[in-house]
Write a structure and sequence with these properties.
alpha+beta, 5-stranded antiparallel sheet, 27% strand, coiled coil, 2 domains, single chain
């Protein structure tokens, strides 16, 4: 924590304590705190992220949008042709699709 109110950071004085005089604020201290908060938030985001487990040439199933309780949930098999970030280009004998890797699973 910086130990200051938001008003103190912006204007350099605490409006709730009028006897307190202007206090110079170190931009370096604020930048360090902002970087620390950003690193913490990035760690929280990446905490549950799965690594990309697919490679080109793998055979996978594709998840279908569920329409009912007894409908099939996975359809396949598809061949992974290309992977970019979180998107895979998959194909079977009928079509080629670009799909998020969260909607794929290995055979």
């Amino acid at each position: 924590m910086i130990g200051m109110t938001p008003n103190e950071v912006v204007y350099g004085i605490n409006i709730f304590d009028p006897l307190q005089r202007y206090r110079p604020i170190s931009g370096k201290k604020i930048a360090e705190h902002v970087n620390k908060v950003k690193a913490y938030e990035l760690n929280k985001v990446n905490e549950n992220r799965k690594n990309n487990l697919f490679a080109e040439g793998d055979f996978v199933y594709r998840k279908l949008e569920s329409k009912g309780k007894f409908e099939t949930k996975w359809i396949g098999s598809y061949l992974v042709k290309e992977i970019r970030d979180q998107v895979a280009k998959i194909e079977n004998e009928y079509n080629i699709l670009n799909i998020n890797i969260r909607k794929l699973r290995h055979i």
